[in-house]
Amino acid sequence: MVGTVTRGTTNPNRLRRMDRWIAAVHGAELRRAADPVVVDLGYGAAPWTAVELLHRLRAAAPRTRVVGVEIEPARVAAARPYAREGLTFRHGGFEIPIPQRPLLIRAANVLRQYEEGEVAGVWERLCARLAPAVGHSRGGLLVEGTCDEIGRRHVWVALGPEGPRTVTFATRLGSLERPSDLAERLPKALIHRNVPGEPVHAFLRDFDRAWAAAAPYASYGARQRWIRAVRDLTGHWPVTDGPARWRQGEVTVRWEALAPRG
């Protein structure tokens, strides 16, 4: 098995923001596939995230199958009573022990305990297991990121077979004081780069400034303030989504704009 055992902490509904984003942006790929297989990698001590992922993705792509993969055998044994049609559990790690090339691998709060220098190798290994881009398909998607214990704040990187594509920041807007509050949930590839001179630091600085400038919109609610701040960001940063996602408390930026220097 490739990888190490995580702390395994999890809570019901913790990954709802990531799940909803996946359903919105990757649902069409799942619907087009003859056998859309999804992997919930490192689901933890309880199988709630895998159960919820199946429910949310089947709303977008009814034929989706989810395989929960855990490197700790006791966690796999504990999860198996929750197996059902479309949901199974397997013992394994970054090698992804299934015969198919999955259309999605979700790895939430898995790389937090690893060293920054190990991330690129893990990404490369996981991306190599994704379904390839063929014809009109862009191939599988790896979504790797970190959130707080109850899922109010979440940042993730989306990668295709070719490598990283985007970074998404998602939050419960009512709990947000400023956008840079999300810095503590940056994925391992970026969290140590939130320092002057690095692009992610400049992005969060500019986001805070746009948020401050949008303060008059707070009288219409935090959502309107967020939308205005993100709209201002689009003049300087390659934001890839639009108001429909911004209304959810999200913003997605091209990876190249935030990638670590050096």
Oligomer: single chain
Number of helices in the DSSP assignment: 9
Main sheet makeup: 8 strands, mixed
Q: Which segments are poorly predicted (pLDDT under 50) over 5 or more consecutive residues? A: none
Q: Over all CA atoms, what is the radius of gyration? A: 18 Å
Strand content: 15-25%
Strand tally: 8
Spatial strand sequence of the major β-sheet: 3-2-1-4-5-6-7-8
Net shape: globular
Percent range for helical residues? 25-40%
Folded structure, characterized:
The protein is about 35% helix and about 20% strand. It contains nine helices and eight strands. It has helices spanning about 15-30, 50-60, 75-80, 115-130, 190, 200-215, 220-235, 245, 255-260; strands at about 35-40, 65-70, 85-90, 105-110, 140-145, 155-160, 165-170, 250-255. The chain has an eight-stranded mixed β-sheet. The chain is globular, with a radius of gyration of 18 Å. The model has no long low-confidence stretch (mean pLDDT about 95).
